[in-house]
Amino acid sequence: MYSDADMGISRKMITSNSGQYNRDVLGKSMGFSADFINSEEKMRKKIFVLLIFLFSFTAFSGTTINESELKNKQFYLNKRIDFSAIQGNERKKLFIQTLVPIIENIEMEIKTEKEQVKKIIEKGVRTQEEKDILNNAFAKYKVKNMNTDELLNKMIVPPTSLIIAQASLESGWGTSNVAKKGNNLFGMKSFSKEQEKSVKVGKGTYYKKYNTIDDSVKDYIMTLARHGAYKQLRAAIVNGENSLKLVKHLNNYSEIREEYGRKLTTIIKANDLLEHDA
């Protein structure tokens, strides 16, 4: 387990929702002007900044990125990063910078899916394709009896701050063995003992292995969306409660129960993670 000091950070983190990243990192390492950083072309700027950060990161990580990879914005989302090779606050900043765009992409996917499902539910007469989409959603979110209200309440994404806090606590800011060997940031256990699907820890505890961090975040979100133990958490998310209130609904996630929520609260506050919520 990690100390409160390790959970904190001395400088302000990036602000994700505006698409702007830490100017100190960019300005000092790359020498960009304020005019460039404040460009009105927000989407192009966001992608470019991400790619430039990747380029600068390779200077001290030893990772080689070829030209074709730099042109692919999805590369940043799927890159395997050894967070243990980076020390202190820089590790935490990189961890957050890695997770923010991944969470934003998943949130957009689920919101789009939910809007499509809502439109189908509101229709009186549905095509076969629409019926199939609805049935697939019922199966995906494990909704019985075709309860549409339950389905919509399960199609949620926790606040970004809560996701980052849990990922950092469960993985030690990406440095745990299961994080390094299996991209598993949330301590998700595996029922499979196959080496391709799991990471063995100790004498016989197996954790899920993911191809990418993106897959790990998706599985974590779907676990909270489908499992009966998190029904109160989902209701609180739908009601718009922030992460500092939501943590009390995560006692079932860890054996340390209420202490788990207190540790998450410390991480959220110490790292100004609420700044990353919409």
Automatic annotation (TrEMBL):
EC number: 3.2.1.-
Protein name as catalogued: Exo-glucosaminidase lytG
Keyword Transmembrane: yes
Location of the Mannosyl-glycoprotein endo-beta-N-acetylglucosamidase-like domain: 131-277
Keyword set includes Membrane: yes
Organism the protein comes from: Fusobacterium ulcerans
Top-rank EC class of the record's enzyme: hydrolase
Keyword list, A-Z: Glycosidase, Hydrolase, Membrane, Transmembrane, Transmembrane helix
Transmembrane annotation, as ranges: 47-65
InterPro entries cross-referenced by the UniProt entry: Bax-like, MGlyc_endo_b_GlcNAc-like_dom
